[in-house]
Structures are given as structure tokens and as C-alpha cells.
Amino acid sequence: MQDRSASLLLLLWLAVIISAGLLLDRPPAPVPASAPLSQFSAERALTYLNEFAQRPHPVGTPEHDRVRDYLVEQIKSFGLTPEIQRTTGVTPIYQVSGMVENIIARLKGTGSRPDAVMLAGHYDSVPAGPGAGDDGAGVAALLETMRALRAGPPPKNDIIFLLTDGEEEGMRRSRECWRLPVIRNQRRQFASHPASFRSRAAHRRLVLYLRDLQTHAE
Length: 218
Ligand SMILES: [Zn+2]
Description:
By secondary structure, the chain is an alpha/beta fold.
């Protein structure tokens, strides 16, 4: 009887630990658009998404150009200076090539160290859908992150924002961004791989990480 009680207690204890783990791993609740400007607001991110993820915008289409121009204008409105990298991308493994239009912006840090953080997402969509999830949600989150960081105190290190193109055709074009001088010169000084904004469950951790980063900066 004592053995059975001990087993039940152990099971109960395990259930508590698992439930606590699941609860703690949940993404933060959406922050409303009325939140202070230096905070990331999911509601504000959604307004960007509604603007650009209306129709399919694969590379080489007029809708793609509209989305590109919209993103550039938004970045400018945050007070940053976006650059567009236009070049031909080739990936021999898929035997495809095409025009690259990666968008890049840099938020200068106050520190003197050359280390930088890069946040990246891709803004092209598949031909069959408006790309709201892949990777529109990521791009919208990236825009809102950019805006919030710009509105708050400047970060210690530079933050590079990269919106890549042509990912849906095998990433042939997004790879071209590594040729950009701003990234090529920086590449050795990244602390890790770029933080990629994708709509995957695992990237909840990135959201939590960015939230913590912001909390500590305040
Ligand atoms: Zn994708």
C-alpha cells in the first residue's frame, strides 16, 4: 500500500512539473497597439501584415514590387535607411537563377565593439497564397521589432535587419545577401547564426528572448 501511495505521489509530482514546464514555455500574451511605443506590440505587427500579405507576391510579380516598396517605406518611417541589394542569384543545385532584391537596414549601437546581431526573415511568398504565415508573420514581427527598438534607447551593439527575397524558390536569392559589403565585413563578428523570424513553434523562444532583452534594457 505504501508503495502504491509513493507511486501516486511521484506521478502527481511529474504531472505538476510537466504542466509548469508547458505553462512557462507559452508565448507572451499579445500586447495591444495602445502599449508604449518602445514595446513590441503584436497588434501593431498585425497591421503591417494586413497591409502587405494581401495577395500572392512571388518574385518577379507586380505584387512583389508593391510589397518591397511598402517594406522600404515602413523602414524609412522608423528613421532607418534601408538599402536594396539587386543582383543575380544562382543556385546550381536547383539549376535556377533570378534577380535578388534583399532589403537591409542597420540600427547603430552605442558601443565601440564590432559585434552585431542580425534578425532575418523572407518577404517573398509562394505563388499559391499571400504568405501570411510563411514568412509574412515573421516579417511583420521584424518590422515591429525594428520600430520598437528605434523608439527605445539605442542598443549597445549594432542590429542588422535583413529581409531576404526568393526563399520560396530554394533560397537561391536570399543567399546572395552574404555578398553585401555590410554583411560580408560583419560576418565574422556575429555571435551566432542570424535569428530567423519564421512561423514555427520553436521560434516562440526567440519571441521570449527578445521580450527578455527588452525588459532588461528598460
Ligand atoms: Zn518560406
